[in-house]
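Example 5.3 — DUF2330 domain-containing protein
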Amino acid sequence: MVGGAVVRRGAVVAVLVMLVQMAALIRPAWACGCGAMVPGNQTSMAVREETSAVRWDGRTEEILMQLTVTGDAANAAWIMPVPTRADLALGDTKLFSRLDTVVAPVDKTRHYFWPRDGDWPFGGDHKKPNGASSAAAPGAAAPPVSVVGSGELGPFQYAQLAATDPAALESWLHTNGFTMPAGLADSLKPYVDQGWEYVAVKLAPAANPGGAGRSVPGKAVPTLGGDLDPLKLTFASDKLVYPMRLSQRAKTAQLLRLFVFAPHRVEPVAGIGGGGSLETLYAGKPDPEQVRWDGGQGPAVFLTAMRNELSRPAAITGDYEFRAAPADERYQRVRYHDELLTIGGVPAWIATVLAVLLVFAAVLIALRRRSNRRRWAAYPPRPVAPPRPAVPPL
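Solution (predicted structure tokens):
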């Protein structure tokens, strides 16, 4: 009887554990630095990385955004706030690979003199790498929510929205198939107060090359995964801004990479919280041919590449706003490779030690000879007596 009760109790515990694990699997993992990324029902998704190229000339801003996602969602949507009405277009899929090449660390070799672990006589190979690096015009919105534009771009379906009520905007999104995280209206309110507009985007994996596959009984359903197609938004703005506030609703840590083209090197006006700060990866004026924008020649302006890991998205307090840095100081990361210094294939320390020993030996020999000369000088040879005069014979 007691044994049966123990078995039943164990079975109940096992079922509860399975239910908790299943709930964790189907819980949506919203994430998107620029906006709110949301998967469909009973699926999960996380944005592993968000990469954006931003071009700003003081009046117009362009954002080319690419997301790298993981999960098993068969479709997804996100919303992007913009300060003024935006024009949408598909972005250059190869731009980011070119930018990665430009901002990558340069390799340099530096030599060390004394042997280390692995060098003779402590080991074999004398080479041992050691990496080191060193206010916008408000949109018109008479009703609580207005659809001011819509259309399709490749795998994307989008709607451009204006709103005067964040709760009404959240309701519109739910009604039109955008399953948003709870409390999104609170994060949208600052944008509504400033008269911003919104770009709501839907994406299905069937037309996206990064789509993976998720099996269901009877058929295979393509799922979103990998690098999504880049989307470009162009809008008027007298400030260089990058929207981040909606990432307050993210359930996973955020990794953001920004490539900013502007007349000068840029720096953030202030931090945005979230447990991270922008790290500069590159600053300079690359060859325009290396950073071709939209298939044409790249802008002949200053490029600042930055990276940010936001470990606590819920602590994000606003959007990134950038200003010109005090100076257009250039910066390039360096990856050093340390090598033992050699002379003619012989470790320099050995040649130096041998040279020192030879010099020391020569000095000893010279000192010994000098000492001998002094000794002989201290004891001069005895003078030879003059010969006696010969005695004449008797």
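Remark. The radius of gyration is 37 Å.
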